[in-house]
Known about the structure:
Elements: H1 3-11, H2 17-20, E1 25-29, H3 35-44, E2 49-53, H4 58-77
Parallel strand pairs: 1-2
Amino acid sequence: MVPPLVSLCTHDPRFQRKHLESLKYIGVGAAPLGESTYKQFTSKSPTTQLIEGMKSSSRNIFASWNSFIEFMKFQASG
């Protein structure tokens, strides 16, 4: 997710806590996420972990995200 969408979920009243509670992880990339937006989002959705991935190309971000997901599946199964 790009930072402006995280900001939208954080500040738009149409996105309530109940809409975000099922999210466990959100990969954030393409630009840095501001510290205040990070703090506000995590207070609105404390069960969601924001994972920033800044690489030289979007292809690398997804490779890193997929590696993380595979790691989490391995941890959950064993």
